[in-house]
Design a protein that fits this description.
CATH architecture of the largest domain: 4-Layer Sandwich
Structural class: alpha/beta
Radius of gyration: 25 Å
Strand content: 15-25%
Shape: globular
Strand order of the largest sheet: 3-2-4-1-10-9-11-15
Number of helices: 19
Bound molecules: fructose -6-phosphate
CATH topology of the largest domain: Glutamine Phosphoribosylpyrophosphate, subunit 1, domain 1
Mean pLDDT: 94
Length: 612
């Protein structure tokens, strides 16, 4: 939540900062701002609204300079407004900073600074940092003052700071919020995430918590809060710029939905070959998994869509690998005292690797001796680095706020994990294992076929776009799919209320709401509970609800139960959550498009939830 950028190098700095900022806008988009440093001091422009609004404001300004910082905001303290937008400055306007995170002790710091005569302009927690640095800089050099101020902060931050007293440096620091350094030729970047710098460089240094940087146009010095130097070499990022651009699609979400065959193929790549009856993971993952005994417990931690992947993971690990699994929302796990110990393996599932609750859950479990395995998309992210082993999904950057390809590639990683453990624990007959492995290899091809439902889905979307409530129902492996389908719709189409339930739960309450024309999306692909789902469909139809049914191709009888039908490729039941995810995502997308919603940047949301 919130994106920050710092830049030092060549003019035009404004264009560089705005371009990078537009690639970070998925992190927050209620306000944006920029500060540029040149021989005439610091000039700050900021306003409520999106990066395009800031760009329009800047159009008539001539802002030269070779150093600057910028920010896109997701409000925590203080409503979205011009004043509360970042950058924030000190009393004299001689230093400016941008911040991602929350300063928990800001009220007490602010009271002290007010008593020392500092004047505040905004309601934000961030502004205290500017004044705190200003206060310390009365006695110390800027770098020392910055570090001294950081030592007084409680909470989370990624920061970038510029000051007129030191025009040849950008200062930065991280604690609990992501921050990377992009290493260019004669130019250097500081950013919340890699896509912000991809147009300029693929050489990146990942910073750790409690690290501070001093960046010039020719290099960067990394140090501890106490100023002790740290050496770290840049890594080469494999993502390219094209993967962070829309490439002709109307929205990132649609592009990412269509990227799923490739994303899943990347997750499988080098890990499963149809010819060899085995799953291969990297050395650390293999070591961790080989130490896991069948009576050991796995606790899956995740939030949102990743939690839905975790729910499917629980079903498959228990059914095929015979390992007891608990799946918990990370935001609950961290506060409810669930016992974990060295006999527990915690499996954290996260696209960004930065979700605050998941990270806190991982840290808590680690402190109690649990081993941490993560399924993660972003290399070098906090959770990836704090895990004992990582299964990277390699899905490429996911920019749209609504998670699509990250979800199906997380499921794919869970299939790999399940098959690996099923084999190493001898839990599955080899012939059955081989059948499942072959089914898994075919997933990219089946997703491609599922994408061809888009034309039919556009028509269905038109029919139901004006509905204001939806239910999504499924059983067993597709109960999580129902939750995920509902989440997709409500997050990108905020005028619609959608809920996902286990179909068998309808009669315990939710069915009372069904009335004429209420759309209910049913997941009725082939499974041992198919007939039970049909009974649930009939229960809804008896109350005049409208049933949009997603069923397996070749099902000749389903039409008579469906008001609208989406036929998807046949597959083993455990793989069906991947296949049905595609029409669920497309349905949400096209309904949201017809409702003229801001699909890639829905109100009140941000992609990477780095605050509690
Ligand atoms: C929904 C969505 C969120 C994320 C959740 C976890 O489409 O994107 O629910 O799934 O915030 O994020 P990660 O996977 O980055 O931990």
């Amino acid at each position: 939540m919130c994106g920050i950028i710092g830049y030092i190098g060549k003019p035009p700095v404004v264009e560089t900062l705005l371009d990078g900022l537009s690639r970070l806008e998925y992190r927050g988009y209620d306000s944006a701002g920029i500060a540029v440093l040149n021989g005439n001091g610091i000039r700050v422009y900021k306003r409520a609204g999106k990066v395009k609004d800031l760009r329009a404001t800047l159009q008539h300004q001539s802002l030269d300079g070779h150093v600057g910082i910028s920010h896109c905001r997701w409000a925590t303290h203080g409503v979205p407004s011009d004043i509360n937008a970042h950058p924030h400055v000190d009393c004299r306007g001689q230093l400016a900073l941008v911040h991602n995170g929350i300063i928990e002790n800001y009220a007490e710091l602010k009271a002290k600074l007010l008593s020392q005569g500092h004047r505040f302009q905004s309601q934000t927690d961030t502004e205290v940092i500017a004044h705190l640095v200003e206060e310390h800089a009365k006695r110390l050099s800027l770098g020392e003052a910055f570090r001294k101020a950081l030592q007084e902060l409680r909470g989370s931050y990624a920061l970038a700071l510029v000051a007129t007293s030191d025009p040849n440096h950008v200062y930065g620091a991280r604690c609990g919020s992501p921050l990377i350094v992009g290493v260019g030729k004669g130019e250097m970047f500081l950013a919340s995430d890699v896509p912000a710098v991809l147009a300029k460089t693929r050489r990146v240094i990942y910073l750790n918590d409690q690290e501070v940087i001093e960046m010039s146009s020719s290099g960067v010095q990394i140090m501890t809060l106490e100023g002790k130097p740290i050496k770290r070499k840049p890594s080469q990022v494999t993502w390219n710029l094209a993967s962070a651009q829309k490439e002709g699609y109307d929205h990132f979400m649609l592009k990412e939905i269509h990227e799923q065959p490739n994303a899943v193929e990347q997750t499988l790549f080098n890990r499963l070959a149809s010819t060899a009856p085995q799953i291969t993971f990297d050395r650390r993952t293999t070591t961790l998994l080989n130490r896991l005994s069948p009576d050991e417990r796995i606790v899956i931690l995740a939030c949102g869509t990743a939690y839905h992947a975790g729910m499917v993971g629980e079903y498959m690990l228990e059914e095929f690998a015979k390992i007891p699994v608990d799946v918990d929302l990370a935001s609950e796990f961290r506060y409810r005292g669930i016992p974990v110990d060295p006999n527990t393996t915690v499996l954290a599932i996260t696209q960004s690797g930065e979700t605050a609750d998941t990270l806190a859950g991982v840290r808590l479990a680690k402190s109690q001796g649990a081993k941490i395995l993560s399924i993660c998309n972003v290399m070098g992210s906090s959770i990836a680095r704090e895990s004992d082993a990582v299964i990277y999904t390699h899905a490429g950057p996911e920019i749209a706020v609504a998670s699509t390809k990250a979800y199906t590639s997380q499921l794919t990683a869970l299939y790999l994990l399940t098959l690996y453990l099923a084999k190493s624990h001898g839990a599955l007959d080899p012939k059955r294992w081989q059948e499942l492995a072959e089914g898994l290899c075919r997933l990219p091809e089946l997703i491609e076929k599922a994408l061809s439902t888009e034309r039919a889905i556009k028509l269905i979307a038109r029919r139901y776009a004006s509905a204001r409530d939806f239910y999504y129902l499924g059983r067993r492996y597709n109960f999580p799919s129902a939750m995920e389908g509902a989440l997709k719709l409500k997050e990108i189409c905020p005028t619609i209320h959608a809920e996902g339930y286990a179909a068998g739960e309808m009669k315990h309450g939710p069915i009372s709401l069904i009335r004429k024309g209420w759309p209910v999306v049913f997941l009725a692909t082939d499974s041992p509970v198919y007939e039970k789902v049909i009974s649930n469909i009939e229960e809804v139809r008896a109350r005049k609800g409208e049933c949009i049914v997603i069923a397996s191709e070749g099902n000749k009888t389903i039409r008579r139960h469906a008001d609208a039908l989406i036929a998807v490729p046949k597959t083993e039941e455990l793989f069906s959550p991947v296949i049905v995810a595609v029409p669920l995502q497309l349905l949400a997308y096209h309904i949201a498009k017809l409702n003229k919603c801001d699909i890639d940047q829905p109100p009140n949301l941000a992609k990477s939830v780095t605050v509690e």
